[in-house]
UniProtKB/TrEMBL annotation:
Gene: Adgrg3
Alphabetical list of PROSITE patterns matching this protein: G_PROTEIN_RECEP_F2_4 (PS50261), GAIN_B (PS50221)
Listed transmembrane segments: 183-208, 220-240, 260-283, 295-316, 347-369, 390-414, 420-443
Gene3D superfamilies per UniProt: 2.60.220.50, Rhodopsin 7-helix transmembrane proteins
Keyword terms, alphabetized: Cell membrane, Disulfide bond, G-protein coupled receptor, Glycoprotein, Membrane, Receptor, Signal, Transducer, Transmembrane, Transmembrane helix
Matches recorded under InterPro entries: GAIN_B (IPR057244), GAIN_dom_sf (IPR046338), GPCR_2-like_7TM (IPR017981), GPCR_2_secretin-like (IPR000832), GPR1/GPR3/GPR5 (IPR003910), GPS (IPR000203)
PANTHER family: ADHESION G PROTEIN-COUPLED RECEPTOR G3, ADHESION G-PROTEIN COUPLED RECEPTOR
Protein name per Swiss-Prot or TrEMBL: AGRG3 protein
Lineage per the UniProt record: Eukaryota, Metazoa, Chordata, Craniata, Vertebrata
Signal sequence residues: none
Amino acid sequence: LLQSGQHSRLAGLKTLLLNVSRAVTHDVLISFSSTAGPSRLNTTDKGNTGKIHLPRGIFQSLSSQTVRVVVTVLNIQQLGMFKEVNQTAQVLDNTVLGITVGESSISGLQDPVQLTFAHRQLPHGVTPQCVFWDSSKGQAGGWSSNGCVTQPGDKGTVCSCDHLTFFTLLLNPSLDGSTAKTLMAVATTGCGIAMAFSIFTIAFCIFIRCRFRFEETLRINLGLHVNLVGSLFLLNLAFLLNSGLSARTHLRTCRVLGGLTHYCLLCCFTWTALEGCQLYLLFVKVLGIYIHHYLAKLCLIGWGFPVLVVGVAGVIGSYGEFSIQTTDHEVIVHLCWITSKHLLVHYITNCGYFGLIFLFNMAVFGVVTQKSCSLLGTAAVQGYRKPWKVALVAAGLFCLLGATWVLAFLTYSISSPPVLYLFTILNSLQGIFIFIWLVVLYYPKTKETPGSLSYIIRHDKTTTVSQ
């Protein structure tokens, strides 16, 4: 018996070397913990430390009379090892357990190896998962659960695996069944309502464009709003089709549906960015919007750029089946989306792309807010000085620039139901908010009164820009 934790200079590594005879007639029990090194465990010993159960069948199948068992306990926080790219789950106590028997690789065991990871009662919304380090996964390796069965308990989790390698217990954030089903119901209902209001919004924008058809700036603004609302309509429709059909579709059809959903999401983000660019041109570069076929060029960007991104993602096979599970490992929904093997595509094309758009739009929102406050004292905007109307217009502009999507970043690595509910409700009802904002902002009460849209357009170019 050798405790290399007492002799090795490498902090965070503790190893047990144990010689076992091939003719062993009993199972081998070993204890381990994150603070103490591994040691041989008698059947009568009790404690709160982790346990390793090596079945005697492992040793009887070996050719040599005596084999060496090596059990290594690693603290990956101190060693900086076994870190998966874009890993959101936590490793229990930062502890990784390595087991080798003899000099050959052991796999396909009929009587599995059992590892008991001792822990207190886990927080609500966290699912334990037994995994091992798969060096062939990705470029630098990653965690895999193939061949391992997880049996959660109040005082520990038992992992039964059919091979020997480096193991750990991942704590994955997840949802309980009732919360997940309620969120899906809220999202489905909200998407249906948002689709109806998106149609109302498009009809209202067409009506206003016809009424003020000689005002080019107004027509461009309304054209942008129509395209943004149209992308929201397609996104809600794609989500409803995805959640309803993905569980019954062929793999090839699922890839197409996943690419379509991704395309609609990117279109929504792109048109949100174009709304921010338009506001920047109106407030900073006032004459910059007078471009030949300006709206047509914006449409080419808004609907064409996502085609390139989705095309590249489709070529590398990023789309396929994606499932969402509860804490009880119950699959609540099947989706056709970016597969778990290509999460880097999701982080770059969705999270990274929207993050840049959000930073730009929030800078534009700050400029718009400052300009609007400076214009509130002018005579042409006396009709818009009511505090509730100013607040409503600011909130609508905030929503128009896609700020509600930033809540998606708060849902990573946590399972807070209030945040998830807020994200689901605000984004599924984004079409309603934009409709109310457009009605309050653009619909004039009278034809030619100071403060009405037509009066401002005709008499004050600066105030036209603010509108």
